[in-house]
Amino acid sequence: MAFLQTAPQLAHPWREERVLHAWLDRVLPAGRRAALDADLDALGDYALHAWQRARTITPRTPVLTQWDAWGARVDRIELTPTWQEGAAITAQHAVLAAGHEASEYARLEEFARVYLYHVASEFYTCPLAMTDGAATVLKASDNRELMARALPHFLSRDPATLWLSGQWMTETHGGSDVGNTETVARKSDDGQWRLYGRKWFSSAVVGEAALALARPEGAGAGSGTLALFYVETMDGAHRRPELSIDRLKDKLGTRELPTAEIHLDGLPAWPVGELAHGVRQIAPVLNITRTWNTICAVAHMARAIELARDYAMHRETFARPLIEQPLHAQTLADMQAEFEGAFALGFEVALLLGRVEHGTAAPHEVQLLRLLTPLAKLWTGKLAVRICSEALECFGGQGYIEDTGLPQLLRDAQVYPIWEGATNVLALDALRTLDGSALMALRTACAAWNKGGDPRAAFAIDAALDAAQAHLDADRARLEAGARGIALTLARCAAAALLTRQATWSQERADARPAAALRRFLGHGLTRLADTEPDDTHLLLG
Ligand code: MFK
Question: Do the domain assignments include residue 150?
Fold first, then answer.
């Protein structure tokens, strides 16, 4: 019999996990930490089961049936088995509901669950993210009627009553620039608002509700005149006839996720707040879903690295395991160090979100959260693609073979820099918040995180922050051209400071690994500032 290579084995994503364990041990009070264990263990079991199951069945994608045999419009979507399990897993383990408990740790505990569930969920986390955002928007509104109607469903711990919400924003002419939204809201004679238009990326069309941007009839152009509406998609067991699904998108990745193009032809709608400034009203959805994007990207990196590491332990080349080949080990360790930095930033954003929402954050932390949310999203989104690509290479040709499950990691990862705002849009969003006091808030936070840690880290972080600050003095065109470099630099500074804190805590417990991650992360450099010479830019594009 010819040689047969064993497939990479996935370790238990919770029981045999180190980084999330240490983070939760450091942050959470003992009682809360212990209470979390059962859900994380069960979600780890599910993740392991889902990975093993996916290796033994033919991949499935959702199927849209628009018409029944007798010509009636039905727009029925048949979901994959994993998606059919989504409501039960979400409700049983409070994946969503945990984030809305009355505790400053609620968001951290929610995102620990998301971290374990995400890759197994086949991006069921996408509609969960939007539902979380919708719940957050409704709670922030003073619309008691909508709150009473929707929140018990969005945050339900019973799969039978759980509702998913979409976020219907993107249109053919209004992607990043939603001010171009063409959907119109008209008030009918009975006083009911109704929406007319086409939404171009609806990933929760199987959900029961959505938040939608639309322009009230007669309102002027631009984004300030858009209003935010709440809609429901079902009339009992049937999809409302004023909502039709034109087709499901044929995407590079996230193929199990039924992303749809839809038409609204008089769908009943209720204003969430005032009939203007809809972008401002929907902004909490953006920030919540961007945090989901961050944690999902980090979870994705963890999965790719874990598989590559396991493979390196068992695959022999040139008479020894790959893990003993210095260059291969170096490559894996570099990936791990970047991942640990990304993890630290992502979970700090989750913790800060909970503290801000619960009212226990210091004033500078409110500003810090607003700045770190886009920074974390844009950096981790890009990094996930890079790490997944590198991980595939760790398997040689097998990394390119579809039924290993590895190519899907890379295809799916490409959504993170796109989903919920592309990298450059996020960099410009960071600029929106980046005045002198926001930078000071970041400096203050970094100094606190660095306290008692490796002085070389503090020196490198200060130098990189100074360099980024110098770039903020540029004129507007240069500032925008350099926004990505500034954002990446600030993200790396925050991550390095957070790694320093984790390393100090871990060293006191005789664990030297986070300190090794910090040294390596610093070795990769913090500064990513760009050359923004406009003449060169024009020459290169001419
Ligand atoms: C999982 C798999 C998914 C399958 C594939 C998916 C592929 C992608 C599908 C999608 O389409 S996902 C949705 C992606 N779209 C976005 O994320 C939108 C990206 N664009 C932006 O984020 C723009 O920056 C934005 C739409 C917000 C620009 O809008 P405006 O109205 O032109 O900007 P403006 O005037 O600066 O902001 C309006 C208000 O919102 C301001 O407040 P005020 O009215 O009080 O002045 C801003 O401060 C506020 N604002 C904007 N962004 C904010 C924010 N407030 C808080 N947080 C933010 N992030």
Answer: no
Q: Does residue 352 sit within a domain? A: yes
Instruction: State the total domains in the chain.
Output: 2
Does the beta carbon of 178 sit less than 6 angstroms from any atom of ligand 1? yes
Regarding whether 534 and 504 lie in a shared domain, the answer is yes
Does 177 have pLDDT greater than 90? no
Which residue has the CA at smallest separation from atom 58 of ligand 1?
Answer: 283
Q: Which of 205, 212, 211 is nearest to 243 (CA)?
A: 205
3-state secondary structure 324-360: HCHHHHHHHHHHHHHHHHHHHHHHHHHHHHHHHHHCC
Please tell me whether residues 504 and 373 are part of one structural domain: yes
* CB of 415 sitting under 6 A from ligand 1: yes
Give residue 206 CA to ligand 1 midpoint distance, Å.
23
> What's the burial of 99, exposed, middle or buried (CB within 10 Å: 0-12/13-18/19+)?
buried
> Is 408's C-beta closer than 6 angstroms to any atom of ligand 1?
no
The answer, yes or no, to whether any atom of ligand 1 lies below 6 A from the CB of 273, is no
**Whole-angstrom Cα distance, residue 387 to residue 410?**
9
Give distance in angstroms: CA of 399 to centre of ligand 1: 36
For residue 133, give the H/E element and its range.
helix 125-140
Domain shared by 507 and 530, yes or no: yes
87-126 pLDDT, tens digit per residue, is 999 999 999 999 999 999 999 999 999 999 999 999 999 9
Q: Which stretches does DSSP call E strand in 206-322?
A: 209-216, 227-232, 234-235, 238-239, 243-248, 260-271, 316-317, 320-321
What are 295-335's pLDDT values in tens digits?
A: 999 999 999 999 999 999 999 999 999 999 999 999 999 99
CA of 539 to the centre of ligand 1 (A): 32
Span from the CA of 177 to the centroid of ligand 1 (angstroms) = 8
- pLDDT tier for residue 179 given thresholds of 50, 70 and 90: confident
The tens digit of pLDDT for each residue in 233-279 reads: 999 888 999 999 999 999 999 999 999 999 999 999 999 999 999 99
Q: Is residue 349 part of a domain?
A: yes
Q: Write out the residue range of the structural domain in which residue 361 sits.
A: 282-542
Which alpha helices (DSSP H) does 476-533 contain, by range?
476-481, 483-507, 513-523
Contact in structure between 67 and 74 (CB atoms under 8 Å): yes
In a domain, 370, yes or no: yes
pTM equals 0.97
